[in-house]
Amino acid sequence: MSTPTRRPEPPVTGTVAVSTGRRTAYLLVLVVLPLLALAAAVAVVWGRGIGPRDVVIAAVMYAVSIFGISVGYHRLLTHRSFRCRRPLRIALAVAGGLALQGPVTLWAAEHRRHHKYADRPGDPHSPWAYGEDGRALLRGLAHAHVGWFYTARRRSDRRHWVPDLLADPDIRRLDALYPVTVAASFLLPAAVGGLWSGSWAGMWTALFWGGLVRYAVVHHVTWSVNSIAHTFGDREFGTRDRSSDVWWVALLTFGEGWHNWHHADPTCARHGVRKGQLDASARLIRLFERAGWAFDVRWPDPRRMAARRSQAAD
Ligand SMILES: [Zn+2]
Ligand SMILES: [Zn+2]
Q1: Residues of the chain with pLDDT under 50
Q2: pTM score, whole prediction
Q3: Ligand 2 centroid distance, CA of 186 (Å)
Q4: Residues 6+ apart with CB under 8 A from 236
Q5: Which ligand sits closest to the CA of 114?
């Protein structure tokens, strides 16, 4: 049986070559370290249980990270699906940074390229990159989930894909301060755990659950949108790609798993537009809008939805 091979990576406009060292760094930081962190966390607290304090700290850190990615990095900064006041924009960008998925300019550049070439040559992370049959799809899923961090020999050139973000002094400052955000992502839960419990032990368990375990879980939950929600699930709307709706991914990602409509209308602030599709991120944006902090929100357009529905039926 022959091994499925990936279609050769085309020299897409707006990409630059990535060195082996950098690809190895991506693999370590985005895949290997979170898993080692999880293993270390389990080993350290094994048999000692986990208290309600750690659960609360980990849940809050999880929510901040996921909302930061979904509402901040993705809907606000990558797709500009709403505008907001400067303090909120900075807060959402920082929250996205706490998820440890890289500086926002890097994240947004790869993601804008994903939308332009979705599931076609040029898409940085399509599960269909190796072909359609079972074995090829299995490889494709691994590639879309985490493999591309290492195998992609070209990465999106920020000057090409995110000139708007590079022109924003706040974003440039946050990019430069990214190492501080990374440190804060671990120090914050540790400090809260230590102060809340008044003990070193409380600091350590909060660091493990709210820092390390949350780091691993948030990554794999987010990457599921790229792998699972381009492979399984319903497709209500016509798109040129294989984006789909997967309820459990949507639940864990606060709405990002309703991925089919997102590809049908990427600048729309709500991804879960069908009946019963809970989209926590859209609800948060609505709250910001009501409070007067967010404006020019692009809510779903019923005419566009009807048109895309009939495209899917064709
Ligand atoms: Zn997608
Ligand atoms: Zn998107």
Answers
A1: 1
A2: 0.88
A3: 27
A4: 245, 260, 261, 274, 309, 312
A5: 1
